[in-house]
Write a structure and sequence with these properties.
Chain lengths: 115, 584
């Protein structure tokens, strides 16, 4: 992390660049969602728009994490802590899948079938 | 005093100072918290049993708030850099901008919330959804709804478009009550109050309305009670003619509760006696065997003369018969009998109780979904819907259908058609590459209503207009900054008087309306609390950090860095919230 005055001055320049990138990306997010000519995939909102929107958001989040939150030169312990939390949070998205392998649910389906 | 170790100097084993590990641990827990909420969002959206509201929030406030948070993220990191360079006034300057950004963010959020709390929606019996603003009505002493204001007229009269639900009288001292025109009117001459569940709020409302109407709610007969089976002296709960009051209900409840307690004790004692006898008779049997063979229970016959009579409800007369009116959420209405939420029963007659609303949104998507589930033709069901019996909405719908056809033509022209069949059978040769969505087909939003209204008012030949020409008539994002603009465009929103039996469910745009709004308020509300919390911590460093800065600037810089990390995380959450809630 920047500690010397020179390094801090240099880091400030990076912050400005990241700020501009974030602004451009924000405008891009809105543009692809509202301007028909920039609409990808089918007409209106669809999976392609969702993926693009989330990709832009993830890129922006990456910029904030690595530059503003100084993750680009952080200690291993921090990577482990935060990385573990992100992995566990991502696991939450697959909890919905459990609904389909729940034996109680399948029993219910079987009971509902005509004999 | 013991000095706290490693507050800004790194520990040898971790290479980090303690506060940094602490904040990252905290942020990890926050990732799980918001991750859980985002996962709920996906679960509820994917499995929703109604058409998910896609891109229905006004984008501009969300966009401005995104920009505001990004600016504040930069200023907070600049404030930290200023501390590192030992520039106190620069630190204060950047921190002040951060705090102003936080305040601005919350202010804008409050405006958005306010617009939603005052925006009404109703799902009709055929699953048509109408959105809009409620009109205002006045009720006089005789229970007549004497005057109805259009929502916009009301705003123009200087009441302010969104004052509270009810208000009493006016500056000229007239005897009436004014309220949003969405009430259930019920004329009653007899009220039965359940003393165990009666709520002061409902009792007060009944008393207040009876008072305003000049009528009396009173006990027709004296209500007495017994203290206990031993004490025969009479106990008066309420005298004949005594008027309904909270004190009376409280008294009746206390007599009821003591009678219930006494009777409970009697039963319990009797049961103990029965068990004692049964055990004495069958000393070699276990308890469960006695119960199975002989079924020990309270001997009601033996104690029936000792049970104290319990009076759970009090019956009141209303003279003269009065029309009471309640919010739909307060009452379950029926033709001759209605029940308030606190189990108070009203006998009488349901009056005409329409919902009067200036509509700024008409949505058939849910109706279509239900029709398709029943394998019915959606178009036919729409044509038969109640809302299209109204001439104005019918006209809007006809214009809208025309515009959807024009959009279809425009998309075909711009993107063309497939030249050969898809091998997976998804499309055939000649099918257009892009077609209007379900939302395009079946939802008319407020900008479209204004555009159609303008075209009709100006007497334009709509069949000759192109899709883009019509689109140009739509108001821009500034005109409807937080939602439909009723102040200047009210003339375009048709007013509907929807009979009560046509309303399946109604609510403002609050968590009650649907799971989308439940999530919207939960996640953005929680995020807002984080903004406030972060603002307080950063504000503390700015206003009270001088002493620490002079004694130990590195410690303060470390604190600001830790606070800043939290602030960046708040920004990070919003970076995902904005597209998910506003643009998808």
């Amino acid at each position: 992390m920047a500690d010397s005055p020179e390094a801090i001055h240099k880091a400030k320049k990076n912050y400005i660049i990241v700020f501009l990138i974030l602004m451009c990306m924000t405008v891009a997010t809105v543009a692809v969602a509202t301007i028909p000519a920039l609409d990808i995939g089918k007409h209106g909102f669809d999976t392609a728009d969702m993926i693009l929107g989330l990709l832009i958001a993830s890129f922006k989040a990456g910029c904030v994490m690595f530059i503003f939150m100084h993750l680009n030169h952080e200690k291993k312990l921090i990577y482990f802590l935060f990385g573990l939390a992100i992995v566990l949070a991502l696991c939450l998205y697959f909890i919905t899948k459990l609904a389909f392998i729940d034996p109680i649910i399948f029993e219910g389906f079987r009971l509902g079938e005509p004999k | 005093m013991v000095e706290i170790p490693y507050i800004f100097k790194p520990r040898k084993d971790t290479g980090l100072c303690n506060s940094k590990i602490a904040i990252w641990l905290f942020l990890a827990s926050e990732v799980m918290l918001f991750g859980g909420l985002f996962s709920s969002y996906i679960f509820l959206r994917v499995f929703s049993d109604y058409p998910w509201p896609e891109r229905t929030l006004p984008v501009l406030p969300g966009l401005i708030n995104t920009v505001i948070l990004i600016i504040s993220s930069v200023t907070v990191v600049f404030a930290w850099a200023a501390l590192k360079l030992r520039k106190w006034s620069q630190f204060q300057f950047y921190m002040a901008i951060t705090l102003i950004c936080a305040a601005f963010f919350m202010g804008l959020k409050a405006l958005e919330y306010k617009a939603k709390f005052n925006h009404q929606a109703a799902r009709l019996s055929d699953f048509t959804v109408v959105e809009g603003h409620l009109g205002y009505a006045k009720i006089d002493k005789e229970g007549r709804v004497s005057k109805v204001y259009h929502y916009g007229d009301h705003a123009e009269k200087g009441h302010g478009a969104d004052h509270g639900d009810d208000s009493q009288g006016d500056s000229h001292g007239s005897d009436y009550k004014e309220f949003k025109h969405n009430k259930i009117f019920f004329k009653t001459s007899e009220i039965e109050v359940d003393v165990t569940s009666a709520s002061g709020k409902y009792v007060d409302e009944l008393i207040e309305q009876a008072h305003a109407a000049g009528s009396k709610i009173y006990l027709e007969e004296e209500v007495g009670a017994k203290r206990s089976y031993k004490d025969e002296s009479p106990l008066q709960v309420g005298a004949q003619g005594e008027e309904l009051s909270k004190a009376l209900i409280k008294r009746a409840k206390s007599v009821f509760v003591s009678a219930r307690t006494a009777n409970g004790k009697l039963r319990r004692d009797n049961l103990s006696e029965q068990w004692a006898e049964a055990k004495a008779e069958h000393p070699d049997l276990r308890g469960w065997q006695i119960q199975k063979e002989y079924g020990v229970d309270v001997d009601l016959e033996a104690i029936k003369d000792r049970l104290v009579p319990m009076k759970k409800s009090l019956v009141f007369k209303v003279e003269p018969a009065t029309t009471f009116y309640f919010k739909p959420s307060w009452i379950t209405e029926g033709e001759s009998l209605s029940k308030l939420k606190d189990n108070t029963i009203l006998q009488g007659e349901l009056q005409d109780s329409p919902m009067v609303i200036s509509i700024d949104g008409l949505d058939f998507q849910h109706l279509v979904m239900k029709a398709e589930e029943r394998q019915q033709d959606p178009e036919t069901i729409i044509e038969k819907s109640w809302v299209l019996k109204d001439e104005n909405t019918r006209q809007l719908w006809e214009v809208h259908k025309m515009m959807v056809v024009k959009l279809e033509e425009k998309l075909l022209e711009e993107y063309g058609a497939y030249k050969k069949d898809d091998e997976h059978g998804r499309y055939q040769k000649g099918d257009p590459k892009r077609v209007p969505t379900e939302k395009d087909h079946y939802r008319i939003d407020w900008q479209q209503i204004v555009a159609y209204g303008k075209a009709l008012k100006e007497g334009k030949d709509i069949s000759a207009m192109t899709y883009d020409e019509m689109k140009e008539l739509r108001p821009g994002p500034v005109a409807g900054f937080t939602g439909p603009n009723h102040k200047t465009m009210n003339e375009y929103f048709p007013e509907l008087s929807i009979p009560r039996n046509e309303v399946r469910f109604d609510s403002t745009f609050t968590p009650k309306w649907n799971t989308y709004y439940a999530l919207y308020f939960t996640i953005t509300g929680l995020h807002g609390l984080h903004v406030i919390g972060g603002g307080i911590v950063l504000g503390y460093y700015m206003f009270f950090g001088r002493k620490m800065y002079e004694s130990n600037p590195d410690w303060l810089a470390n604190r600001v860095e830790v606070g800043g990390l939290f602030w960046h995380f708040v920004d990070l959450v919003w970076i995902f919230l904005f597209p998910i809630l506003y643009l998808m």
